[in-house]
Description:
Layout: H1 3-14, H2 18-27, H3 36-47, H4 51-63
Helix pairs in contact: 1-4, 3-4
Amino acid sequence: MSFQAYLDAVEDKTGLTPRQIVDLAHERGFDETTKAGPILEWLKDEYGLGRGHGMAMVHVITKGPQIPSKHVGSSGTHRDESDTLWLDGKATKPA
């Protein structure tokens, strides 16, 4: 599953876009200095997200939408089309 697919699944599971969750996380005080554990616990308690989907959100909460380009355009199952993740929801994602 690609990184973007994880974020799209988070939207399906929560009804919130990844950006909305990032904003809520920042309102709670989570930022680039926050360890994964507290964020994962919050995401599990509030939204029922498991570790895989939670870790995808931890990345964008703590590091932003940029991902390493090593999987971009690769042939593996984890490949992404871009090194910048789309956080504003599946319905508004450019083709």
